[in-house]
Design goal:
Layout: H1 11-14, H2 32-51, H3 57-63, H4 69-101, H5 103-121, H6 127-140, H7 143-154, H8 160-189, H9 191-212, H10 223-227, H11 238-255, H12 261-266, H13 275-304, H14 306-324, H15 330-344, H16 347-358, H17 364-393, H18 395-416
Helix pairs in contact: 2-7, 2-8, 2-9, 3-4, 4-5, 4-6, 4-17, 5-6, 5-7, 5-9, 7-8, 7-17, 8-9, 8-13, 8-16, 11-16, 11-17, 11-18, 13-14, 13-15, 13-16, 14-15, 14-16, 14-18, 17-18
Length: 422
């Protein structure tokens, strides 16, 4: 029996929070499980390769000739943020090109481009070259977001939440494991060799993507479909706007405490030597919780509805932010951040599922590209807002302000949810 046969009934729309878009049936690939495995492994390895530089980035900047301490910190921040800046700008473009020329082709482009960029970073001789190559990496990359588009558009709708949750777990695991590997490799093989090894690993991802990703051919677009591309093809834009805002809120909630976490932990821990260790655990706790819950919450959303999970996740995370502002011990903050990660783990797969179910297939890549850009925006706005509020109004205000934003997000999603699914 064909893999997709058992998903071909009315069950596909019974728990998906989507309006009926009958003009263009979704394309479900016979190879969706195989594609998911390749995308999962590829996203994990590329994210690891892109984040492993975090522990030694200031050391590399110093090797490139920057000696002043303040300048080292400044250049490190510029080099790190450069990739997110260009990635946010081009994500909608790559999504649109994926709609036009195929999602697999975009994954091949991203993996090959990232392999070249990472290898060249290891050959930089000046700090401006490092920044330029980090910009190029963001410009040419996007394997994880491209994988999300492919999995979202070619997985049976009744399994979309679970599949995207599994993929999301791999992406978050890459963000967690990358810095850990980056802390151990340079002392063993050197900083430049670490970049070259990362480039080699991404090149293996390029080979696996080229050989094993199987994308179903799409029917040729008619003139009407071409003319109605973009936002004009979306019957109801409110759910899409809500998901773009929710994606930004998710990243903002995760990143808003990044600038203040070490200072906040220093107020909770008596032993100064343990401040950095506890801070690192606090930062990892939310990611670990999300990794553990993403696929489970995605599977739950396939049964009870994606909107229900999104609203509940935003509301619960909002409530969990309140006690974080009033903790008195480091272990309390670690536990609360872990619980918050558990509650937020299902958001990314549910956001992608709602977008997929509310837009025609021929523009799904472009709209998901805007979703990726909104998440990158949250990664930029979160630390800036957290640093500003923490510096002017105190540490507790950061958690309470984020709490208000998450509560507003839950209320907005409640208002725009499709009524017939509740």
């Amino acid at each position: 029996m064909n893999i997709t046969d058992k998903h071909d009934g009315t069950d596909d729309t019974s728990v998906t929070d989507a309006p009926v878009i009958a003009a263009e049936p979704a394309i479900e690939s016979r190879y969706w499980r195989q594609n998911l495995v390749v995308c999962l492994l590829g996203s994990f390895t590329t994210i690891v390769a892109m984040t492993l530089l975090l522990p030694f980035l200031p050391l590399y900047v110093e090797q490139l000739g920057v000696k002043d301490h303040a300048a080292i910190v400044q250049w490190s921040g510029v080099a790190y943020g450069a990739t997110f800046f260009t990635a946010a700008l081009v994500a909608p473009l790559w999504g649109r090109l994926a709609d036009l020329y195929g999602r697999k082709l975009m994954l091949i482009r991203a993996s090959l481009g990232m392999a070249v960029a990472m290898s060249l970073i290891g050959m930089a001789t000046d700090v401006w070259q490092l920044v330029a190559l980090r910009l190029v990496a963001g410009l040419l990359g996007g394997y994880a977001s491209g994988s999300t588009v492919l999995v979202a558009t070619q997985t049976p709708k009744a399994r979309t939440g679970w599949a995207l949750g599994t993929l999301s777990s791999g992406i978050m695991a890459g963000n967690l494991v990358g810095p850990l590997i980056g802390g151990g490799l340079p002392p063993l093989i050197g900083i430049r060799q670490t970049f070259w090894l990362a480039g080699g690993v991404i090149f293996l991802t390029f080979i696996a993507t080229s050989l094993f990703i199987k994308e179903e051919k799409r029917p040729p677009k008619n003139k009407t479909a071409k003319a109605s591309g973009g936002w004009s093809a979306i019957p109801d834009k409110r759910p899409i706007i809500a998901m773009l805002a929710t994606g930004m809120l998710l990243m903002l909630a995760n990143m808003s405490i990044e600038p203040i976490i070490t200072v906040y932990v220093a107020q909770l821990v008596n032993d100064v030597s343990k401040v950095t260790i506890v801070s690192g655990i606090v930062m990892s706790a939310a990611a670990l919780g999300s990794i553990l819950s993403a696929s489970r919450l995605g599977k739950l959303a396939d049964r009870i509805g994606h909107w229900n999970v999104i609203i509940a996740a935003l509301a619960i995370s909002s409530l969990l932010l309140i006690p974080q502002a009033f903790v008195t011990q480091g272990w309390q903050l670690i536990g609360l951040r872990f619980l918050m990660g558990l509650s937020l783990g299902g958001l990314l797969p549910c956001i992608t599922s709602v977008i997929r179910h509310n837009v025609p297939d021929h523009i799904a890549g472009g709209i998901l590209g805007y979703s990726t850009s909104s998440q990158y925006a949250g990664q930029v706005v979160g630390p800036l807002a957290g640093g500003f509020i923490g510096g002017h109004f105190g540490m507790r205000a950061v958690f309470l302000a984020t709490c208000v934003l998450m509560a507003c997000g839950a209320a907005y999603c409640w208002l725009v949810r499709p009524q017939r699914f509740l």
